[in-house]
Amino acid sequence: MVNNLLAISMTLLLVASASSFAHPLRRLRPALVLSALASAFALTAAIHVTATGNPVTVTLWEPSPYATLEMRLDPLGAAFAAIVGGVGLASSVFGIGYARHRLIDDFVYPLFLLMLLAVTCAGNVYTFLAAWEGMALASFILVLGDGAARPRRQAAIIYLVMTHVATVFVAASFFIVARESGSTDFAAMDGSALSVPLASLAFLFAVAGFGTKAGLIPLHIWLPRAHPVAPSHVSAMMSAAMVKTGLYGIARVGLVFLGPGEPWWGIVLMAVGAVSAVLGVLYALMERDMKRILAYSTVENVGIITVGLGAAVALRAEGRVGLAAAALTAALLHATNHAWFKTLLFLSAGSVQRAAHTLNIDRLGGLARAMPATGAATLAGSLAIAALPPFNGFSGEWMLLRTLIGAGGADGGDAVRLTSLVVVGAIALTGGLAVACFVRMFGIAFLGVGRTPEAMAAREPAPIMAGVLSALAIGCLSTGIASAWIVRWLQSVPDAVLGVRATHASDGGQLALASGGSFSPVLIAVVLIVLAPLPWLLARALFGATGQRRGPVWSTGVVFRPTMQYTGTSFSKPLRLFFGRVLLPERRIDVVYHGASPLPRLVRYSGRVPALFEERLYLPLRALALWSAGRLRLVQSGSVQAYLLYMMAALAVLLVVAR
Amino acid sequence: MNGTAEAVILGIVQIAAAVAAAPLLNGFIKKIKARFQLRQGPPLLQGYRDLAKWLSRSEQVADSSSFVHALAPAAILTATLAALLFVPVFAERTPLTASGDLIVVVGLLALTRALLTLGGMDSGGAFGQMGSSRELAVGALVEPVLLLSLVALALQPQSTRMGDIVAFGDAHPGEFIGLGWALAAAGFAVVLVAETGRIPVDNPDTHLELTMIHEGMLIEYSGRSLGMLHYAAMIKQLLLAVMLVNVFLPFGMARFEGVPGYALGTMLLAVKVALVGLALAILESALAKRRLFELPDLIGAAAFSAMLGVGVTVLFT
Known about the structure:
The complex is a heterodimer. Chain A is mainly alpha-helical. Among the domains of chain A are: 1-259, no CATH class; 570-608, no CATH class; 615-658, no CATH class. Chain A has helices at residues 2-19, 30-52, 75-98, 103-121, 125-144, 150-181, 196-214, 223-229, 232-257, 263-286, 290-317, 321-356, 367-370, 372-385, 392-407, 414-446, 453-456, 463-481, 483-490, 492-498, 521-531, 533-543, 568-571, 573-578, 580-583, 612-632, 640-658; strands spanning 56-61, 69-73, 506-507, 510-512, 518-519, 548-551, 586-593, 600-608. Chain A is globular and about 90 Å long. The mean pLDDT of chain A is 91. Chain B is mainly alpha-helical. Chain B has one domain. Helices cover 71% and strands 1% of the residues of chain B. Chain B is built from twelve helices and one strand, in the order H-H-E-H-H-H-H-H-H-H-H-H-H. Chain B is globular and about 55 Å long. The model of chain B has no long low-confidence stretch (mean pLDDT 89). The chains are: A mainly alpha, B mainly alpha. Strand 6 (548-551) of chain A pairs parallel with strand 1 of chain B, so a sheet runs across the interface.
């Protein structure tokens, strides 16, 4: 039944793609409607597989026994396929009201979804790599769009280059493992017999390749460029679902293929994750464009999930399998939670762009009064992404912190214990900065007074868009309250991957580890609901009813103007200074004098936070590549004799080496 | 069912006690500070009169405010009271032992910060936005210190439940007190100063825009809402003081049983909290407010201390 659902879903996506050519039907948006339907089928299949723990296999095409096109959905893949399905469902429905009709977009969008899905349920290396490339190409086309604007072309090209370099690493990693296990079937690939250096190489290749797709720092540079320029429903797919395929790959190689592994692998992953989390949110705080803020926040959240995966690898290598299962669960829980709130916030950004024609928060303001439904939903998403109880972001963070503190317990090696606890500090700092980041984004864009006429004139978007946002907001809250059940649903994954379940992970609606400290989201919600009316009721009972007068906002006695408000840039000034040594902000003040007058005629101020990784790491690398290419031109003399000589030499070398 | 009833009663008692005592602690600190300045100071009970005044007044609300402004004060008070339910106050037991731990307390305090700063930004006045901007910057630095200083204590009992930490500290004071404990306590002390908006981080007595953080966020609030926000701040101050004395100095606590035991425990707690209040007042009188941009040095040192406390505990126990 489930493999039928999966096959139906994939077929529907192909039909959806073809339906974009049905010109008379274009008003019905068949591509998006069918994509939504297909996503719902895929979601159902994936939820079922993870719930039961029984993998399903669909063989699509078998041209030879060595290269079959095969889908195999196992619990690990299904957890990610569920994310793809859920995000696809929300984005497609939102897209019906939001997306402008363009043939190429409608044609590629279902294919993108199909490839995403295929990556999570590929059953062997060839299927995976084909889907992986298809996913990259489809998203590249969607990012490129009409390619009219230069930043858009630039973003697309950088994305294409990065993703292909990543694919090389991914393929190399797979082939190292496949060579050892003598099979390219995911189910049979087992690198546990590899020598430690070779296994480590395969692991590091996987981290480099998949880490690029996931957006781990310093491989993230394409992400904050490419995600924002795509249409919002595609941005949501990329940020909430596509980056997770990278994490899926790291989990697949690091935990499934390469067996118990080495503790230092996990330490490396945790360190990379922690750095990505802290720097990701710091850069998000410095951005003014809503979608760029969200893109950098994806880097942050991917970092947090990577910390969970790293903890799982390290703990398992040390033989602390129960805690490793909890760490893996925490990573997956945060991945599903992130899918909820990141989809919500990217789609909300789409609504804002439609309503106010800009995403620059310094030109917005007062949107919560102009579009209350969107405002309330975005507030819920902001609180969730800032990891505040009782929203779902907090549950994932609790589970992760609790596991890391457990990993600091006495039965492990000192290196893993200390790393885990330093990472606890990093995650707490990330949490504090995320609160700052999303209070800033919501507070500047949605609160206060509109800073431009367009922001003042903003109105609620189409009901279908507002409806999707509200549903996602309710999801952020209810999955937070019900997170114990989601954890239970996810238990088939550590069971399949590590052979154990996270013990006592969810008794009666409560999250817990084997011992020492538990957390019941349900009870917290009950307590908050019971306590919430108390202040009002008590105040009313003791001091009677009070009235309310409306008046202008206090602005030291002068008439208030919207430009008096803080902007996003001024709001993050304290943090820009606090973290000056990390961010290296630049500012320039030009003072122009008029003749001999001591009074300046003009003062020009400009400031920016440089993209350090691009400027200090990638630009020199690019220069090096161009320089060495120039040197290599010497070989290309253009004379036939020389080329014949090269071929002879190559043949001679081959004969000697390969014999 | 018996356990549930007990939990509910203990919860109500803890909340009622905190609500009753929080203005007193604030009044006590003010009184001591005034004495240092050779002033008489407001009477100890002035805090209650101020709160009663605010809570019975009507409100002036800015035209430009949204639903956030209206909902924030009660929500902040709610989250603060909820955090109280996971902290051991009179005895090792907490009302909701199984439902939350120190991470939940940190999370609920972060929730109050988010709501407070959103409320401060809602009307669009630059004062509120400035206060929010500073509060969030300081809060982001304080959060890891708060968590790490508590985690340092959670390592030996292998539990993040505060009641377990208290029980462990009470049962094994020799292992509990050590270098790690001292470093963590130093970190937590800075958190207490920063989170209660006191000198050298913030100045509770000023409304000068150059110096203020907390008062800036309240500027658009008046009447009942203002009263609730002040009340929440006082309760949070008491909560952190109780956390400091009970979690870091839990001695004797776990053994309280029966009515006389609880009475003794309460008296001991009152003395300990009063000593913390005294220390805060002395610190505030002795130190000068630091510039906002010098705060990373102070909080960074506290973070380092707490991290070191964690490291020492890992390596030497």
